[in-house]
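Practice problem: predict the structure.
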Amino acid sequence: MDLKIITPEFSIESREVAKMVGKRHSNLVRDIDIYIEYLLNSELSSAKYFVESSYKDKSGKTNKCYLITKMGCEMIANKLTGQKGVVFTASYVDKFNKMERKIEKPKFEIPQTFSEALRLAADAIDENRRLKPAADYTYKILANKGLETVSVIAKNYGMSSIKFNKLLHDLGIQFKQGGVWYLYAKYQDKGYTHTEPFEYPDTNGNKKLNNTMKWTQKGQKFLYDFLKAKGILPIIEMKVTQ
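Answer:
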């Protein structure tokens, strides 16, 4: 994969793109969410176009945004017509051409002293430690093709299943009915969960059936991205940020 596709140095932040196209940032983020959903359903990689990120506003609140690649800008430009489309296309092409020229310049400076070499090595180790937990957790999600119970996911966040379920309810993701958790309508039919029956004995020892909701690989990735945008990280990542 071309690293320029996913690095911040070779992308434009969605807030800047929103200004360029004269659109509210929240509306642009909503449109990108739809584009990504279409790409996921077609099994195409959305990372070639949009990479989810975040920023803090003046009040310190963490908000969702996207890093948009050149291909992502092309997708947005295709939705525009007339002068607005022409001006935006010219603007983002100019920006990416400047980025390419800047990236082509050598960034690495050979250390001149032993202490500089040690500092460079230490910085590289720190950066690797910073990035590795998030990569490991995402890999763990993607490597698990099966269904996962909420208790296992909750444990990754250092919570009980009761507390985690309540959190997802408070965030408007799920609701409880008849003792079973279900996703709200906006998250249904997206392949995030699977409800299956399980057998249990009642107080008299009679066999009973009830349903339980489990999370798919796609659903686990959704939870990770959703919670991360809210500043809620799995334990493995919290240890690094603390």
